[in-house]
Amino acid sequence: MLIEVVKSKIHRVHVTEANLDYIGSITIDEALMEAANILPNEKVQIVDNNNGERFETYVIKGERNSGTICLNGAAARKVQKGDIVIIMAYALMDFEAAKTFKPAIIFPDTKTNKLV
User: pTM surpassing 0.90?
Assistant: First the structure.
């Protein structure tokens, strides 16, 4: 049996930009992606703490150490610049393996979106 578990989590970063005219996705600072074990084009769930929105999109690599968290395309309508969001990625794994799996969870500075 396979179950879906949290693989990666970027906890409480602020949205730096919402770009409605882009094709779609979320742009994330490359340093945050690496620390949270998230790959370019990986599907992620975004949870907006300010308005309760929950939605899915895919990741685009942003400039390293820029603090960039930019929602693009239709996702830009779900957030406002400055909103606090949580970004999560999930993985399917065997039930037994899931019992001992440790997700990559990071807690960047909420003002700068940089690793502390």
Answer: yes
